């Protein structure tokens, strides 16, 4: 029995080391509810991805509490290794995280159907030692910047052309959603 467990561990370890980044990043999987905390290095207290369903905007919030109900996101499958993120904010309005590659903005869309192709996101692991650290690549049909970028200096969210410096806000820590306080 112990030998079988050791062999299974070796096989899983080997497969994980050669698997694509999106496969190793298994924290953003349906039907999880998650918080996304921006790891940007610019000073600022706003860190949690916050969908504002009342006006369809997205920004960063300083805390994940009932005061910022849009910081909770439900994960939905949108293809092989692709997710759609649905904001659970308490206000009425659009709910789907939508990257707008034509102008590099991010907002909320009312559905994941056409023409809202920016609601599909590839989850990419960016830290081999921590699978909870990911980058989110927008798969919108129009060419342009694609990486979800939290701008911790001013609390805005947009799309960046790369995950390299100076775009430190393209790395996100994903945590399964705890009860709001």
Structural key phrases:
181 residues; mainly beta; Trefoil (Acidic Fibroblast Growth Factor, subunit A); two-stranded antiparallel ribbon; 2 helices; 12 strands; globular; disordered N terminus
Secondary-structure element string: HHEEEEEEEEEEEE
**Remind me, CATH topology?**
Trefoil (Acidic Fibroblast Growth Factor, subunit A)
| E-strand count | 12
Poorly predicted runs are 1-25
Cα gyration radius (Å): 17 Å
Strand order of the largest sheet: 1-4-5-8-9-12
CATH architecture: Trefoil
Give the proportion of residues in helices: 10-25%
Oligomer: single chain
Shape: globular
Largest sheet: 6 strands, antiparallel, barrel
Distance between the termini: 44 Å
Describe the structure.
- With 181 residues, the chain is mostly beta strands.
- The chain has one domain (25-176): Trefoil (Acidic Fibroblast Growth Factor, subunit A) (Trefoil).
- It is 12% helix and 36% strand.
- The chain has 2 helices and 12 strands.
- The chain has helices at residues 2-18, 21-24; strands at residues 33-38, 48-52, 57-61, 73-79, 82-87, 96-100, 105-109, 121-125, 133-138, 147-151, 156-160, 172-176.
- It has a 6-stranded antiparallel beta barrel with strand order 1-4-5-8-9-12. It has a two-stranded antiparallel ribbon with strand order 2-3. Strands 6-7 form a two-stranded antiparallel sheet.
- The longest helix is centred in the N-terminal third of the chain and has 17 residues, at 2-18.
- It is globular.
- Mean pLDDT is 87; it is low at 1-25.
């Amino acid at each position: 029995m112990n030998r079988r467990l050791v062999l299974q561990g070796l096989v899983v370890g080997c497969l994980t080391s050669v698997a694509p980044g999106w496969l190793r990043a298994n924290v953003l999987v349906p039907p999880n509810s998650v918080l996304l905390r921006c790891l940007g290095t610019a000073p600022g207290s706003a860190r949690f991805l916050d969908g504002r369903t009342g006006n369809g905007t997205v920004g960063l919030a300083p805390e994940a509490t009932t005061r910022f109900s849009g910081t909770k996101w439900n994960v939905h499958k949108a293809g092989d290794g692709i997710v759609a993120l649905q904001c659970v904010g308490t206000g009425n309005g659009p709910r789907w995280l939508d990257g707008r590659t034509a102008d590099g903005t991010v907002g909320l869309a009312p559905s994941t159907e056409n023409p809202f192709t920016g609601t599909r996101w590839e989850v990419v692991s960016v830290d081999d030692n921590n699978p909870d650290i990911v980058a989110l690549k927008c798969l919108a049909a129009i060419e342009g910047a694609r990486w979800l970028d939290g701008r911790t200096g001013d609390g805005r969210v947009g799309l960046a052309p790369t995950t390299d410096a100076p775009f430190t806000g393209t790395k996100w820590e994903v945590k399964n959603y705890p009860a709001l306080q």
